[in-house]
Amino acid sequence: MKYHLITLGCQMNIADSERVSAVLEKMGYEWTEKEEEANLLGMLACSVRQKPIDKVYNKIAEWNRWKNRRNLITFISGCILPADKEKLLKQFDIIFAMSELSQLPDMIRNYGVVNEASVHIPELRTPENKNIVGLWGIKPKYQSTFEAFVPIQNGCDKFCTFCAVPYTRGREVSRPSGEIIDEVRHLVNQGYKSITLLGQNVNSYGLDKKGKEIGFAELLRRIGEFGNNSGKKFWTYFTSPHPQDMNREVIEVIAQYPCLAKQIHLPMQTGDDKVLIKMNRKHSMAKYRKIINDIRELIPQATLFTDIIVGFTGEDEKAFQNTVAAVNEFKFNMAFIAMYSPRPGAASYRWDDDVPQEVKKERHHKLSEVMKHHTRAYNESLIGKTLKVLVNGQDRKTGFSKGLTEGKITVRLDRYVPDITGSIIDVRITSAADMSLSGEIIKNVRINHEQPVANPMTD
Hints:
Layout: E1 2-7, H1 11-26, E2 30-31, E3 40-46, H2 50-66, E4 73-79, H3 82-88, E5 94-95, H4 104-109, E6 123-124, E7 132-133, E8 147-151, E9 153-154, H5 165-169, E10 173-174, H6 177-189, E11 194-198, H7 216-230, E12 235-239, H8 248-256, E13 263-265, H9 273-279, H10 285-298, E14 303-310, H11 317-330, E15 334-339, H12 357-380, E16 386-394, E17 401-405, E18 410-413, E19 424-432, E20 436-441
Parallel strand pairs: 1-2, 1-3, 3-4, 4-5, 8-11, 11-12, 13-14, 14-15, 18-20
Antiparallel strand pairs: 6-7, 9-10, 16-17, 16-19, 17-18, 19-20
Helix pairs in contact: 6-7, 7-8, 8-10, 11-12
């Protein structure tokens, strides 16, 4: 029996898909790259934006046509809004929330699939969250042998008016810190070089368990101490923080420990205070500026990434120009710019989408050009410098390896060397483009040939 799983949306969905794969393979299913070979076809969906959910409808229509020729079972999970779930109930054989993952084997068996393998999935029972499946207790089937995603929380309590996450994932629940640190320790000991802590709002970690759990700064500190004691080279990232909960202590901890990567993704969304209020972001531009100033003071080498929405309801030209001014002020190394689209369930869905699509496209283009100006200037400042680069595979241009700096800037290397994939090496930067660098592998570089196993948490 074979399965194929398509994952859409954010890194949290990727982490969830690794746990779905682990459950299916314990049932005896074998992964296949080819959908046409699979007996079981699944998707991890994302209702947060319209484009990913359109992909879901297109794909399930194709899969359901295949049912005319052969037997197969389809399922879907992930971030699904109630309105989408209602429509998809008639399209998929199985729909389940990730909190119900332990029940998936029984759901599949109800379709007549018999398998002798037993799947034991622990449950987490707490006064605050009765009968919530211990999703985090499922050891994932990692997709990579050198970079991994480690969930530290699920859900969100912020209720930004443009966002559907609280309605698809629920309220914030923090994972036990001991589990997080154990998973990080396992990964590092197996040779993983890049670890990303995941949550919808990572720096509110532990706030739902005050007095019973540590906070985010302390979690980072304990990972930092482990990194110092391990003697191993790795980088720890996190995404995404919220400016409301970001504080100087977190930045001080990052500055202190080498294994805490000097790269921070801090969503701004808009540079206008009035629009921030309408978005229910619960912080001002003055607060955001204070955080950036702390980063520049304590970690001057850090790269800074952000998220920006253009064309949100009520964004006039003055508000947009305030966003442009903020980008010019902060000189981000990367900005993920999205044109606003209303999502059913989010508060802003009830409001008029009063910025024309053509204006949104124009603002997206203008802001992208402003970003390119700053990223090019920063990248050019790195020419001639030697940087640590995590090699992550073959470049799209044949004959070259590629990788990421600690600050997550893409680097094309001067040749293709398969043996160094998954290693952190020294690279001399030789040229720069708007969003990337090129560099040469320093001769006689010492490559760490320590080979991580395919899946340390399930082997």
